[in-house]
Amino acid sequence: GPCRGGMGCGPARYLVFFQYFGTRYSGVMETKSDQALIGVQNYLEKAAEKLGASVPVRFHISSRTDSGVHALCNSAHLDIQRAPGKPHFTGQQLTHSLNCHLRPEPISILSAHRVASTFHARLQALSRTYIYRLLVGCAHPSQVPVFERDLCWAPAGGPLNIPAMQEAAQFLLGTHNFSTFRSLSNEKPLRSPVRTIFQVEIQPSPGFLSHHYEHRGLEFWEVKFRGKSFLYRQVRRMVGALVAVGQGKLAPHHIKELLEIKDALAFPPNTMAPPSGLFLKSVEY
Amino acid sequence: GPCRGGMGCGPARYLVFFQYFGTRYSGVMETKSDQALIGVQNYLEKAAEKLGASVPVRFHISSRTDSGVHALCNSAHLDIQRAPGKPHFTGQQLTHSLNCHLRPEPISILSAHRVASTFHARLQALSRTYIYRLLVGCAHPSQVPVFERDLCWAPAGGPLNIPAMQEAAQFLLGTHNFSTFRSLSNEKPLRSPVRTIFQVEIQPSPGFLSHHYEHRGLEFWEVKFRGKSFLYRQVRRMVGALVAVGQGKLAPHHIKELLEIKDALAFPPNTMAPPSGLFLKSVEY
């Protein structure tokens, strides 16, 4: 074989962290490329094609996100097999090259790290942290600042009772059967509905340049969830239910009852939060 | 004439405040609509056409902004002559209708106020406040977070000496001949180059969700200018010169010398700040 001169001849595995503005994509996962919206993974792999690797590069994404959902930081692993005699990319070279080829898409590689060939981005993640941005104080969707469009949810119907939401959120902490908070999907075999949430927080958050328009009475809040992993649409359903509590449509103890029912069909209709406010903040290893 | 029943029969004048994401427009002012990028004013007047007024509605914009420049809040006055017998719009009705017709453009009416028929949005403005957003800590433009693209400037070349910039900014305060800081334009007759700056401030600023990625070493700064009015591209030239001070290419006292030269051609080449970081924050009456 052509392995010589101290050059590694097997593929090199990398862990990459990347971010994206999700509005333009069908989600993070690859889709058939003949669709109107395609996946972030399609763009990542198209950029990787231009690295000139000997074998097509596949991204193994750690954390699925839906159409319209954003990532401050998602992660994936990938293997790169270069032509014989060519040295492996450094993390910095790989970051820079992929970013050049990703332009002008709003997808960006944050960093790339050489890892062992046994490393698996999805299976080895210890936890995922999501934040959901709520905008309070809009009487109508047209009052969402133009700089915040597609980046938050402004639920209709006046102020939110934040202390009630905070009380309700405590019921979600810990290990539970989250069947009521999972959307049914026929794309995937049903996995266990038991999940563990390590952290839930509801805190005020700055909006984009909102210190310049405080007088408009708009308030941003962030709901943060950290857990090992989440079920399909679990975060958006949990946020939607908490907002229903904030609006007085549900009482805090109803969250506990919804958990105990363990039935996706018992989830109150039209209560799921839209994708625009959801951000995958980080994947922890 | 058809003036009866307590209905005002003359036109009603309104002062409107509006915001826009400037990247998609040729600037705020109206342009011929056959160009690739057209002006924010074109969209405002197209939305106003759908109000069914008897006379075409013209927006008299208070503050010009260039292509790529944003507004948290700009202002304009306009007259609306309704059909005989129809009552004047309230400010709220006008805001709501225009916003419906502006969708999906990233332009939004913030409020509308009935004013005297002698009111003039440009001539009666007491001052304008601009902010310019700088991103420090990017080794390469691809390190600008995807959520901040087109919304800041990340000058190349390492950290900025902020105290030196703050020292230099003090020379711009007060009344000066700003000829060196004006871009030449053959579109307008030359007006007096004397302008008064009431306030200059350079302060740290939050980035969009940047509290979630503090470890990346990115820092946002805002340069704020308040003045009665500004010359063509004056703010971008002042910011560019201050950044050159921050990079050590100019000393703070060079700002004073540039002012004293009173010659647009003496401005250091390739120093003007790009439009992406500039926001008209407010117009004061």
Automatic annotation (TrEMBL), chains A, B:
Active site (UniProt): D66
Catalytic activity from the UniProt record: a uridine in tRNA = a pseudouridine in tRNA; uridine(38/39/40) in tRNA = pseudouridine(38/39/40) in tRNA
GO terms assigned for molecular function: RNA binding; tRNA pseudouridine(38-40) synthase activity
EC top class named in words: isomerase
tRNA processing recorded as keyword: yes
Pfam families tied to this protein: PseudoU_synth_1
GO annotation terms (biological process): tRNA pseudouridine synthesis
Designated name of the protein: tRNA pseudouridine synthase
